[in-house]
Each structure stands twice: as structure tokens, then as C-alpha cells.
């Protein structure tokens, strides 16, 4: 497949600042589905949904949404932009995503993270001060649940398990590929490296120096733990784009949405934020040039996801954006990234590649 390109959504319900209209929750949920279907239609590879449990966000049940999308697509890889490893029960994660694996014929992976909403911890009976230890312990259990038929477990944060078998078992005996997502915690980069999993840095907020330091840490530790050379580590990046045929139209149209965005509005100017972060507002060629430059920050990486529907942008506009990406941007990026990637740098794992690797391991030498 080569490098994977796709879209992620945080599922915010935000008023359109140009007319004051706020979509209903039903409209927003259906819009996310329409965006996923469009992502496949225009030839991109991945759709990822966030997980939130508070207004103004709607995607509280990623597997429900992704299962519905799986039934309406044939090729699209289904992922999460965050699965809350800290506040979800690892047993439930193991079972839910194995079920989604079977329903989607293996077209699923997930990004584990702690999210960026502090109050979610007490809502699920957890303490935010335990965020990192919860992430470490819960994932250690999740891995075992997917890889062992009967699990005995005793930890700090949940009741013990004795001879427990999660069902269904992973499809073909191959667990979903896991990306550990973090924008600020070196401990999570370390965790990803320790297991030889992927590391996803959603760099919509951060400057290039911070992104480089986090990815470099993961790559160094990936090599330290013997999973391959540093440049063979599996890296994904997030970013936001708004594209029109010419940059002046893009800036003019996007500015009111940026200025009022719940995540980064009422702060730095659009120009300053674009200069410092991965946000790209401009022509197709500007999006191509800036995205290609991410390789200078993160090295040869495997997955690029774009945030397209944040800040109250109407669905019609988002679908127009996806048409431009699919027709004028992503084909060029595929070709350019493929031409620049060394042969020894692997593609992002898929169910089929992981299944093939497992079969090779089971053949006696």
C-alpha cells in the first residue's frame, strides 16, 4: 500500500461562525459517516474517529460508528483518533475491537491515548493523576488479552482476572495494530517503542521542534529495544488543512472558522499559527509542499491523517475539500513520498501483512 493517507475527526458540534447555525447531534454524527464514505470514494486509505464523552463532542462510541461505516465500505481502513486506554476497561477494549475486526474483515487498527479532556477521569471512576500509570498497566493487560487464551492478572487499577478468555478472539489470531498517540508525554513514546508498536503524533498544536523531539525519542528507543533500526519505526502524523484553488480564497474562507475554533480559536492569528504548526491553509501546491516537509521533521513515516471537519465547517465544504485532496493533493504526495522512502523502511502494518508475518514465524526453520 505504501504510505497511508486519510482523515480523522474529533466530532465537535460547533456553531458555523458565518451564519450562527449549530448542527444537531444527529446531523453531526451523520456528517462524520458521510465524510468517511467520501474518504474512500476519493481514494484515500483511512478514516479515524475520536472518542469523547462530553459536549460539544458526539463520538462517545467509536466501535458503533466504525462498525456502521465498515458495513458501507469495502476498502477503507477504520481507526480511532483516540481510544481512551486510561478510562476504558481493557477487557472491553479487547472484546469491542476484536468484534470490529471480524465485522470489517480485518480493516481496523486503533490509536491509544489519554485524550485531552481532564474531567473524563472521575466520570469513569479514575484519577487523572494516575494517567500515565493507567496507560501503562491497561495496555499491558490489553496485549495479553489479545495474545493469550487464558489470562491470570492482578494489577493496581482493576479487579484480578483468573483464567479469563476475552471473546471473540482476534481475527486469524492477529490482534489489531496499535498506535500509541501522544502530543506531550515522552512516557507514551517510550511505551510504543518498548512494544515495537506505532507512534502517532497529532501535531496540530505543536511546533516542528517539539514534534521532532518526540518522534526522535520514539525512534531511538524503538532501536534500543531491538525492533529494527530507528528509521524503521512506525510513525504517523496528524495535521489540518483547508484548501482552495488559490491561497487567497482559502485564507479568506477559513479565517472565521479558525478565529472561533473551540480548540485553537481566540489565540494566535491564523498566519502565526500556520507558521508555527502543521496547519496549512492555501492552494493544493502549498498543501503538497508543507506536507512533504514533514519528512524533514519526522523522517520517513507511514501514516498522514488530516483534520478536515473541525470548527463548524459545513459538510458541503468538507466534502469539497476531500474532492480536492483526492484529485490534486494525495496522488502527488503518494508519488513523492514513495520516491523518497528508502527500501528498508516498512509500510504501515495492515491485517494482511501482520497475518503473513505471523505465518512466517510459525513455519519451522
Automatic annotation (TrEMBL):
Q: Where is the composition biased (Basic and acidic residues)?
A: 349-365
The record's listing under Gene3D superfamilies reads: Luciferase-like domain (3.20.20.30)
Task: Quote the InterPro entries the UniProt record gives.
Answer: Bact_Lucif_Oxidored (IPR050766), LLM_FMN-dep_put (IPR023934), Luciferase-like_dom (IPR011251), Luciferase-like_sf (IPR036661)
Which keywords does the record carry? Monooxygenase, Oxidoreductase
Entry's transmembrane regions: none
Q: Which residue ranges does the record annotate as region Disordered?
A: 341-365
Q: Which domain of life is it from?
A: Bacteria
Where the record annotates domain Luciferase-like, the positions are 3-299
CDD domains named among the record's database cross-references: Flavin_utilizing_monoxygenases, Tetrahydromethanopterin_reductase
Q: What is this protein called?
A: LLM class flavin-dependent oxidoreductase
